[in-house]
Design goal:
single chain, mainly alpha, Four Helix Bundle (Hemerythrin (Met), subunit A)
């Protein structure tokens, strides 16, 4: 397919998606750098080797996976012209995203209860990395929530149809990316920490 062909709207839609993919590529490199630094630092003599993953992080894993499923259901509802399904699934996805963030902070509370803080005398380089990686991911989930909020707003304004849903699709691409990213980070921390 020639990317220069099509109407101005089609070209604009392709460019929006392409820009999202470029952004995702840069995020992959950023998190690749963080996880690489984690691996390199794990050879330090003060590295914590008996870290137990907080239960809230495990719950977060399932919450974020379900949120991807609900967003897929919202997209399917939009493609089929089922506005009520789209609305309920978008709102559920947004609520699951908020619940994910709350669970992440609950996970930090569990880590603090284990006796580890981000900084200070009770900090540990291992925990500092875990806090940093999780916080940077949370920041991206918040961006995803803002995108979902805009999608929900536009959906209520009836700006999307089965034929015109680029904004929805771009937000969904980002949301699914941060979901997959948490699965990767969770598994990485589970097996490497």
């Amino acid at each position: 397919m020639d990317l220069t062909q099509g109407t101005l709207e089609e070209k604009t839609n392709r460019s929006k998606k392409m820009m999202m993919y470029f952004g995702i590529a840069s995020l992959i490199m950023s998190f690749g750098g963080l996880t690489s630094a984690f691996i390199v630092s794990s050879s330090r003599p003060d590295w914590l080797v008996d870290f137990k993953m907080p239960t809230a992080f495990i719950i977060s894993l399932f919450v974020i996976l379900v949120s991807s499923i609900t967003l897929l259901a919202a997209r399917q509802g939009l493609k089929n012209g089922n506005r009520s399904l789209t609305t309920s699934m978008l709102l559920l996805t947004f609520a699951l995203g908020i619940y994910f963030v709350i669970n992440q902070f609950n996970g930090f509370s569990e880590i603090i209860a284990m006796g580890y803080n981000f900084t200070g005398p009770t900090s540990n380089v291992t925990m500092s990395y875990i806090y940093l990686i999780a916080m940077v991911h949370i920041a991206h989930v918040v961006v995803g929530l803002i995108c979902l909020f805009v999608v929900i707003y536009n959906h209520f304004k009836q700006k999307y149809t089965a034929e015109k849903m680029t904004g929805f699709e771009v937000a969904a691409i980002f949301w699914h990316f941060v979901d997959i990213l948490w699965v990767y980070l969770f598994l990485f921390l589970y097996f490497m920490a």
